[in-house]
Every structure is written in structure tokens, then in C-alpha cells.
């Protein structure tokens, strides 16, 4: 692994879920980072290789109890990879002790805590801290992330949805209330806790929607869409479960304001919009993204179609839900916060097929 | 296999594709049918069990060349399970000789041959025959099918899409031009001919759209929607490939005309609409169909949701693309044409999981 | 569902697992059976369609508490589909009250209760009852099953393994101690209880062995092999998990005693051995069984190869682990016990692809 | 991509198959390599990103015709990734012009050309060149590879099989003629050319053996086993197709010479045997390798079990068939040939799950 001198010591709290193990995997290959603390409750005391024998040859770490003082004393940056509702009891203390914090849960994604409470419940009194949080979607909020101490990393579906929708809303090209996001995710998005409906015997060779008209990622998507449109926007969001491990495809529909726009116009607009975004790839005409292309990488592939019969635009975006949709994007944010290159240490080549 | 006396002799032309093998499988278990002719070009002369060794213990048939005279002399009913553009050279002759014909290709799905030519090409002069064809969706055209001699069996996507959309359009509950069908299919829909993008190594663990804004099932869906609405309707249709063998889920979006309608209203309306349709199952509230539930059967499961925030209805329909979406539906039509019970000989219980 | 008059009333105890739901599915289509009792502990009081909405249109049953008196008063036959170690507290009472009992667990598979205890633990004093149990593999013990009141249905792996091995051992064609069974199963064999390693996100796109040299199906295989060979035989058995829902393939290796035997000899011997077994299909030379061919049916496909370089025979057997490996075989046994045709009510055609 | 100055220019002939695309992917991330020539027949003239749009942002190369003079003038090293039977017409000329050659086909795997001809056919007169070829399994032939100019890279199955078997044979721990390799591979091993049996609709949710007792990897495994044992050894080899994209698991059985050996002894022996092999990982007791752990990396995971009941050893080895089983191992060989660290530029962390 080489020399760790001069590397930034980071902590990961919640190391045993898919978010945690992705963070470990990606940070192991990051040239400027050293993992200095791996914290977990149920797995405290275990070696990381007890949980993941196949990573034992590279990752020689023991999972420690979640002791915020110890974490803060040893880490400059802390990733919180925990279920919703836990981070807001930890982040304030870590910030106070001088750590930068990247939260992968929903706790710091909302500028309006009432929205959070309405969709996630819970009783929290950390408005002052929450007000300092920046939504960690670098393609939209790069500058604010660069100076933030607290980043609320986006959900997996919102990442794919917003990267597809943003240029349209920002440029006022669509009628916002016509926006529909039909999203499809691999089952790893449901986490590593054992649930019957996520068993291979149940989920394989089947396909279905869930959380129709009430999935918690809806207000998160709407918050950013409203920000981009300059007024409140409601979005129809429907998630589906795909019989595969990783990947999200969002198929986005919206009515064009100007029926004269053709596909090539939009490809030009998207390309310009993401010119400075190394992790977004606009595909040429008639090429539509495969989730497989993104898997293992921090990339988002975007394909664009215009239907001249209906004056609708259809945008498809593909990401790896655990990388660009979770751990990779958090590291992308960290790169910005540390003043490093945005691509530093993140994988660019999917291992297709 | 028991006694075949008194059974109706049927022919299947095109026995080696997925449509053909499904027809064989289903007709073998049909109590009123006897397979009297199995016709194929490339496989003529072979035993059916050469192609499908696992069916050899039940199916003792040899594939014969496609000889229309011989077919007509031995068969009362003929299923054409061929690529598009072949049936319209065979069906007229078979009809003339007194056979009933069920065509599984696109050739007889369109009441307007100009629409057919615009989307499928080809030069055909069988308007007189085509005018007698009935679109084989029993849930909508049961009576006409019962008296037809020529049935154009629906495509797999149109079957799922139209069963989801019909009650809404028929009752004028939605704004037709807001209808969007985001459909997802297992790869068997692509047929049994070897194509690189349908290889397991390519298609597994990936998800993508294809044919966006230009798939040939679009005009077929629109033709029936227009018929139901009483005026021309355009529908946004987007197919996707799911990494699984069988099954289609159509997720249908539309704006409600009357924002006061709630989910239970629509469940009641759908239940009434399909009261006499034994193959359509309306699910209770908050239950969404899994494609797996339908696989192996001729059933269509429909789940309904209303989003009171957006005044949209979201309808999900699940079918087995090779049964209700193809061979099973053809047999359902045949049951009607012969005056038999609509459910005769068709499987009702998926072998879940 | 038609008339149930004159049908035999049966009970199923343990209706919510994969074994139970298969029994329900298969018995619904059995022409001589009526399901008269569906018993369960955790799910008592629920409607069957609460658990399996997609079967609600055919199965109108409520799950009742496990009350042996009530069961015996209403049922002529009882299927026990429970975890190991429960049946031996129920079967004796049900038998005493005059029921025929088919147990799908391991409890009544062993003629030697010491073997049971050594591999499964538990403290049981039902030797008298256990001594009357017949091992429910009809292809070997057809006559004994026909007169039994208590049948211990085989495990899924033993079914596939023994159907492949039996002709070789019975005829003394192999050196018994060289027998190796390398078996591969879909994940539904692990049951419906949620376990992390059976999640799609864990098990899909991966392959591994488990329980090497210590799987509990080993003594069951050995018991029958010893019976066939006429002396004690030890078999090397290794199970693997395949990223698919259903199906078992057993690849069996053994050294031939007579190196002069060729493949066609063995095909002839196997065909003769299974001549009266409608559920076993011997494949022609160079054709090897696909698990998919058997799925949904009660069939076992067997392919045979001889390697003249090594004087080994390689036999491959494919079954559906939940049908021939579990619920279907139990019904096959019931057919024998009731004097019905062995194939009655059981599916013969896989719904390939 | 950074500076390419001082990098070694390499050519890849046969860029459009899975071997080629893996080489491109892996070499793009190799710090000492520059891809200087991408040669193909059918795809000559196309941009690499025409074939693989998702790699276009990193790989800016055009596929050129296979012109050996041009290749030799621009490349120091050439990878041949072609169907069997083509390399032996190219390698001699490239070697003559001073290139080092790594062949991924079977052409240079055999020290005895008669064995090659018996199993692969063809008429070749390059014995002089073939005699200089080294079998590219670094864990066994590290020193010879380091000084070779022509390397015949092993097949995927032989790689997994031999890494599992070698310590046993080398140390004389087993009775060689009892060795059985029951191997299972993802379907990408069948290549990217469209074949019906590799379609997702055919291969998914199924499992079967193929090439029983006659697969061409048999003599390759036997050649190395014989070399290790010091006398001719025959091995029973059976490949199977797993419904997944990537990965091979080999389950190896053999009778121990010394029944006193326990699992821990063998773990110690294997650990010592592979002490200097950074790409082989011996797992602790009771831990068996998942193919998923290796996928995307050049690693081979080995799990070991001893059955004291049968005195057999069971060894399981897991690799990525396209990396350690193909392109990655070729690069590992190149690293040795160039005097670089054996691990240089090759991925070590699977992107689990």
C-alpha cells in the first residue's frame, strides 16, 4: 500500500453496510487518504476481514466502537454511513471538534427541516448545524461544496434523476410539472440487511415497482428541481427493482416548451452544461446508456432523445448506485473540499462485460 | 397424451422460435386441440425433439416444409408464428381454403395498412383480407374475435400497455395526450435468433432503454387507444430490456381529468371493466404486480395508484410476454373463435418462486 | 375450481415456506385432491392470498393454527412441510388418528435414528413410528410407498444424486467408494427466510461451494447407496449455490468396474432401470441435461458420459429442487399411496425458455 | 491519462472480443504501458469507441488492419488475442522483428505440438518457434517467463484448475489419477460472438455441463500436472456453464496419499507454496471462495477442505475468467518479462457486491 505519510486521516462510521464497504474499497486506492478509523456498533471488535474475507489482503483494519472523541482526535474527515436518523446526533459534535463531515444518510440533504420531518419523522434540534450543510451533488453545487464543512450526500435515485433533469430545468426548456422520473435500481440499493423481498429467490427473474407516489427520494428531487427552476416544482417519481446487483437507470420524461428543439440541440446544451464535470458523459445521438457501463465507476452516462411527434424530451441517465449514487460521490465531494482534483482516486473504467 | 378423437386439428407454422415452442407447449395441454402440422423452413425434416430434447417425451412431431395445401387439408386452424412480412402471403390462401388463421406477427394488427407500411415497410395488396382481420385482444374485442376467421394477435408490449390504459381511455378519465408508457421486458422478447446484445454476458446485470420514440409497437398502441378514446391519440412509449428471461411490466402515467378521483375509485372502475375477463386480475390497494406472478400463465396483473400531489394515475400491468403477450393470448382467441370457455387449457398458476 | 365432491381431503402444515406454497400450487391442479386444512404458526389467521397475492384468484384458503385434532378430523392425508425436528412430534398423533402422513423434513428419512441424531441432533423417542416410515423415492421404493402410512420425503440433493447413482450401484457397475457427487442448486433451496448470503445482491453473479464434507444430505445419500450396494458406502458430496432461483444439477463421478463399458451400454442400462418410472428421462448420447428443462415439472433428466481415457462414468441429473426435489415428489408418493397413476396431477412440460 | 513518455509501446491484435477489451481496459491503467497499435480484421477502420461507447472518454484509439510490419515497427510487445489457429502464423514474424509476444490463444500452450494437433487440428510447421514458448502461468513458471520472448498464456479453466492442483502434485500429496476437476464458468468465457445457447433467454436461470470428457482444456491441464508430478497424469475435467457473466470456480477432488493430513496442514503447505505469489490468496479454514470476490481483479482465491471420512482433499479456486484467466494474467506475464513488479497496474480490489 505504500507510504501513508502526509495522507489525510479519515474515519468511516458504519463500516459493515454496502456504503461502508464501498468507501473502504475506494479509499484504499485513493492516493491522498489514509483510513484512520473504522467505527461500527454491531461489528465493533471484529476485524474488517472477518466481515469481508476477500478484502483481507489489502485492508488490515479492526472495527472500533463509535467513540466520537477518539474519532475526532484521529481523523480530519469523517464519513457517516449509517441509517437515517443517526447522523444528526453525531455530526454536530464532530464538526465542533474540527472534523469535516460527509453524511451519506438523508439527515443533511434538506434545507428545510420540516420537509425532512414530514418524510422521515424524528425529532431534531440541529437547525443551526443543518443550515450549514451543503447538498453534495458536485455537478450543481461544486463551489459550495468546496468550502463546506458538512455535506449531505445525495440519495442514489436523486443523483441519477437530477443529473438528467438539471440542464432542462436550469435553462427553462421544459414545462416543470410534466416531469416524470421512471427509475430502476439494482437490489443492492436495498442494503445488506436480510429482507425476504430482496432474496435472490424472490427478486431474481422478476420486475416490479415499489413506493409508488410516496418514495422518500421524491422531496429530495423536488427540492433541487425547485432550486433550479426558481419556483416550487413537483416531480412524479417511481422506483422499480431490477433483478441485478448494481446500477440505476432513470428514464425522465418532460414536455418541451419549445417544440422546435431537436435532439442535437439538447445534446449540445447538455454537453455545455457538463463541460466542467468530468464524471458526466453525454452520449452521441441514438446511443442510450447501459447501467453496466457505469458500474464500478463514478461516472454518469446520459442519453437524450426528442420525440417530434409528442414534443417530449426523454433523458436516460445511468449510474452505479453504490459509487456515483453513494460512496464515490462522497469521495468526489471530499476531493473538492480538500482542493484536490475532482477525479482523484476514483475509478473511471467499468470492467465490462 | 390420451385420445385425440374429436379434437380440433391445428397447424403451427414457424415452430422453432419462442412463439412456436410456446404454442406447442400450451396446445399439448389443451383438451380440445390436436397438433396436426408443424411447419418450418430451416428446420423442415427435423424432429421437434431434435430442437428441444426436453419436450421429446411429450411431443412426438416432425417439422414439415411449409406446404399450404397440405396444411389446409389437415388443419382446421392455423397459427402463423413467423417474422413480420411473411404472414400476408400465406393467410389469404389458408383462409380461402377454409382455415381459421391466427397470426402472431404484426401483419394483421393494423386496420390501416398505410400505418403498417409506414412502420414495417413492405409491399402488400391484401387489403380485402386485412379488412376482415380482428385485433386479438379479447378483453376489448371479445365479440368480434368470436366470429372472426382471421385474427391479428397483439404484440407483447401493446398487450400489457393496453390492458393498463383501456379503462382510463374508455371512460374518459384521463387527458389522453399525457399518457406515457414506460415498459420493461425480459430478453426473450427479442427472440431466439442469436444477437450479441442479447447474450447473457452482455445483457445480464445491466439495464437500458432501446427504440426510444420509435419502437414499432407505438402505432399499435395508438391505434387501439384512438379507438377507445374516439379520436386520435398519441402515446409516449419507451421499451427497456430487463436482465431476466420472461415478463413485461408496463408502468403507465396519465393526468386525471377529475382530480377528485382516489385510488379506490379506480380500483372499482377497473374491477368492473374487467369483470368478465378471467385473465385480468386487479390487485388491491398498495399492491403492485411482480412480473414473476404472471410468468408461465396467461394472466395480466394490474396495480393502480393515484398521486394526489400531482393528480396523476399510475397503472402497472404485468404479463408473461410469451404467454399473455404472445402464444397464450392466441389460444385465448382461438377458444373464443371455437365457442369454448376463454380459459380452456391455459395455465393459471405461476410456479413461483 | 370445479366440483370437489369425492376428492380426498388433505392438510398442509407449514404453508408459508417454499415447500408449502409449491404443495398448494400443485394440489390445486390435482384432480383427486381437495385442500381441506392449511396450518401454520406464525401466519395463522391470515388469508393465503395475504402471503401470496398472485394466487388469490385460485386459492381461497385461510391459514389456521396447527391443531392436530382438527386436522385429523378433516383430512385423510397430511403433508408436513416444516423445519427439521418438528414432524416427529406431530406425525405419531396424526397416524394414530388414521391419517396418512407425508413428511417433507429430514425427520423420517433415516432408518437408523442414531444417524439422524448424529447429523441433526434432537432427542426423540418415536422409534416405533420411525420404523414404519418409508423413504419416499418412488423410483426405488415404489412398492413400499404404495402400502405406507408414513413417508419420509427425500431431500432435494439426495433425489438428484440418487437417481443418478442408483443404476450404477444396483448393478454393481462402479467402485462404490470412488463415487463423488458435485451438486449445484438454485438459491430457493435455502428457503424463504431472509438470510444475508441469499440476498440477490450477495448471491447473484457469484458461485461458491458450501457445507463441504459436512452437508446433512450426505448420510441420506449414503443410506440409500448402502442399501443398493448391499454394504456400507461413503459418498463424497459437495453442494454449491448457483445464481438462479430453481433447479439442481448433480454431476456424479465414479470409476467403472468394467472398463469395457461404453456410453451406449450405460444408456441402455439406465433406460431399462427406469422403464417403469415416468418421471425419469434418459437423454440420448452427447445430450446433457439443463436444469431449466426440469423447472416447473416433476421430471428428472439424466445424461450419461463415459470417459474411455479414465474409465470413469460421469452422470448428470437435473431436477426442479422444489418439485421433484420436494413438493412434487411428495405428491408422486401420495399418488402411489392412494393407488392412483403416478403422474396424476403433476406438470410434465417445463415452460422453457 | 497523463504523460506517455518513457512508456513501453504495446500492440493488441484482436481488439473487439472480450480478451481484447479487457486488455485495453487494464493496459489503460498500467503506469508503464502505452497502447500503440490496436489491430483487427472485421473492425479495422472503426474507432474503438464505436464498439464500446462507454470507454470512449478514456480510450482514443482507432482499430487498424493487421499489418505485422507496421505493428513491429511501432510496438515493443504484442498481445495476440485471436481465435485458436491464427497466432502461429503471426508470432514467428513478430518475434523475428524483435517484438516480445504474448499469445492468449491455445497456439503456444503445448510443449508437444502433436498434442496441439490432436485436440485443435491444423497444420503447422513452427516447431522451432513453439519450442521457445513458455507456458504463462507465473505461479509455476515465473523464472522462465521472465526471460521468454514468447509466452503462451493459459486457458481460463487451466488457470483455476492448476492453481488448485499444483501444490498437491508438486509435493506428491495425492494419488494423481484420482484428480477430478469439476469446473464452473460464467458465460463470458464463451466469447462475444452471438451463439444461441449463450443468449440470456437460454442460459439464464439454468445450469448444465458441456464438453464432458472431451473439453480442449483437458490436455493443457494434464500437461502441467504431468510436469509437476514427474510422470504422465490424466485428469478428469468437466466444465459447466453458470448463469452469470464472469468468474470460474474449480472444485478439485483427489485422494490423499497420507490420510493423516488435516486441513490445517494443507493450508500451511499451500500458503508456503504461494508465499511469493502476490495474486494467490489462501483462505482460512471453513472459508470457501466466492467467484465474486475475484471478479475484476487478477486474484485467485483458494479454499481447502479435507474430508477425514473419505481421505479426500477438496480444493476450490475462484478467479475472474477474463482477468486472471485471460488478459490480467497476460499482463502479469508481461510485468515479469519487463522486470517490473508482478502486481504493477493490475486491480486488487473487487468491487463487491
Automatic annotation (TrEMBL), chains A, B, C, D:
<dbReference type="Pfam" id="PF22698">
    <property type="entry name" value="Semialdhyde_dhC_1"/>
</dbReference>
<dbReference type="GO" id="GO:0003942">
    <property type="term" value="F:N-acetyl-gamma-glutamyl-phosphate reductase activity"/>
</dbReference>
<feature type="domain" description="Semialdehyde dehydrogenase NAD-binding">
    <location>
        <begin position="9"/>
        <end position="148"/>
    </location>
</feature>
<keyword id="KW-0963">Cytoplasm</keyword>
<comment type="pathway">
    <text>Amino-acid biosynthesis; L-arginine biosynthesis; N(2)-acetyl-L-ornithine from L-glutamate: step 3/4.</text>
</comment>
<dbReference type="InterPro" id="IPR000534">
    <property type="entry name" value="Semialdehyde_DH_NAD-bd"/>
</dbReference>
<keyword id="KW-0560">Oxidoreductase</keyword>
<keyword id="KW-0055">Arginine biosynthesis</keyword>
<dbReference type="InterPro" id="IPR058924">
    <property type="entry name" value="AGPR_dimerisation_dom"/>
</dbReference>
<dbReference type="InterPro" id="IPR000706">
    <property type="entry name" value="AGPR_type-1"/>
</dbReference>
<dbReference type="InterPro" id="IPR036291">
    <property type="entry name" value="NAD(P)-bd_dom_sf"/>
</dbReference>
<keyword id="KW-0521">NADP</keyword>
<dbReference type="InterPro" id="IPR050085">
    <property type="entry name" value="AGPR"/>
</dbReference>
<comment type="function">
    <text>Catalyzes the NADPH-dependent reduction of N-acetyl-5-glutamyl phosphate to yield N-acetyl-L-glutamate 5-semialdehyde.</text>
</comment>
<comment type="similarity">
    <text>Belongs to the NAGSA dehydrogenase family. Type 1 subfamily.</text>
</comment>
<feature type="active site">
    <location>
        <position position="156"/>
    </location>
</feature>
<keyword id="KW-0028">Amino-acid biosynthesis</keyword>
<dbReference type="InterPro" id="IPR023013">
    <property type="entry name" value="AGPR_AS"/>
</dbReference>
<protein>
    <recommendedName>
        <fullName>N-acetyl-gamma-glutamyl-phosphate reductase</fullName>
        <ecNumber>1.2.1.38</ecNumber>
    </recommendedName>
</protein>
<dbReference type="Pfam" id="PF01118">
    <property type="entry name" value="Semialdhyde_dh"/>
</dbReference>
Amino acid at each position: 500500500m505504500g507510504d501513508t505519510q502526509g495522507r489525510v486521516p479519515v474515519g468511516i462510521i458504519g463500516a459493515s453496510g454496502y456504503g461502508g464497504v464501498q468507501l473502504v474499497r475506494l479509499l484504499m486506492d485513493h492516493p491522498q487518504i489514509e483510513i484512520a478509523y473504522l467505527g461500527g456498533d454491531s461489528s465493533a471488535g471484529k476485524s474488517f476481514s472477518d466481515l469481508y474475507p476477500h478484502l483481507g489482503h489489502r485492508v488490515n483494519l479492526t472495527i472500533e466502537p463509535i467513540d466520537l472523541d477518539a474519532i475526532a482526535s484521529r481523523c480530519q474527515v469523517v464519513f457517516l454511513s449509517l441509517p437515517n436518523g443517526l447522523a444528526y446526533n453525531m455530526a454536530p459534535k464532530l464538526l465542533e471538534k474540527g472534523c469535516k463531515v460527509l453524511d451519506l444518510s438523508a439527515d443533511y440533504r434538506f434545507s428545510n427541516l420540516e420537509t425532512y420531518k414530514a418524510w422521515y419523522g424524528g425529532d431534531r434540534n440541529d437547525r443551526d448545524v443543518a443550515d450549514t450543510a451543503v447538498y453534495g451533488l458536485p455537478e450543481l453545487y461544486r463551489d459550495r461544496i468546496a468550502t463546506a464543512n458538512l455535506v449531505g450526500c445525495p440519495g442514489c435515485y436523486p443523483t441519477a434523476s437530477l443529473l438528467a433533469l438539471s440542464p432542462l430545468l436550469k435553462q427553462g426548456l421544459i414545462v416543470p410539472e410534466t416531469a416524470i422520473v421512471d427509475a430502476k435500481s439494482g437490489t443492492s440499493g436495498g442494503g445488506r440487511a436480510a429482507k425476504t423481498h430482496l432474496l435472490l429467490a424472490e427478486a431474481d427473474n422478476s420486475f416490479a415497482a415499489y413506493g409508488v407516489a410516496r418514495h422518500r427520494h421524491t422531496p429530495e428531487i423536488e427540492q433541487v428541481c425547485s432550486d433550479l427552476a426558481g419556483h416550487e416544482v413537483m416531480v412524479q417519481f417511481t422506483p422499480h427493482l431490477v433483478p441485478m446487483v448494481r446500477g440505476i437507470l432513470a428514464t425522465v420524461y418532460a414536455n418541451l416548451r419549445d417544440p422546435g428543439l431537436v435532439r442535437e440541440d439538447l445534446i449540445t446544451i447538455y454537453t455545455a452544461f457538463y463541460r466542467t464535470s468530468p464524471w458526466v458523459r453525454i452520449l452521441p445521438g441514438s446511443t442510450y446508456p447501459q447501467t453496466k457501463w457505469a458500474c464500478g465507476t463514478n461516472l454518469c452516462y446520459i442519453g437524450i432523445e426528442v420525440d417530434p411527434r409528442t414534443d417530449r424530451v426523454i433523458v436516460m441517465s445511468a449510474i452505479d448506485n453504490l459509487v456515483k449514487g453513494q460512496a464515490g460521490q462522497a469521495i468526489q465531494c471530499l476531493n473538492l473540499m480538500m482542493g484536490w482534483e475532482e477525479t482523484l482516486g476514483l475509478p473511471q473504467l467499468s470492467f465490462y462485460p
